[in-house]
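Tutorial, part two.
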Amino acid sequence: MNWYLRALKQYAVFTGRARRKEYWTFVLCQVLAVLGISYAERALAVANPEILFGWFTAGYLMLTLVPALAVSTRRLHDTGRSGWWNLLHALPLLGTLVLQGFMIPRGTSGSNRYGPAPQEAGRQGRRFQGIWT
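Running the prediction step on this input gives:
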């Protein structure tokens, strides 16, 4: 859950890199939230019966669209790819499957053109934390 909240706190940060754990935790929480909201909408009979969700689910998805794109872009940066690969979402099924395939492998070790590895950045922050606080 902390990784999900971290992605939401970095609402529109499209620079840097995101670990696999951050990305996949965000995706899991998104799926669970959408399933929960749409279930509640169906139980309260406010969902559109043709698509099985309603305005609350659509609103939630709209509110989390920018954080989802941001964490996806940072994850692509971690694998050494440009964030412009997110445009594959425009191809409904094939593009999304290819994009999810890009998210599976481990990120590049060390620094790449998008910044230091997320694990290294966290260690550096902890190392210098005692000096400044």
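The first helix runs from residue 2 to 9. In part three we will examine how such features are distributed along the chain.
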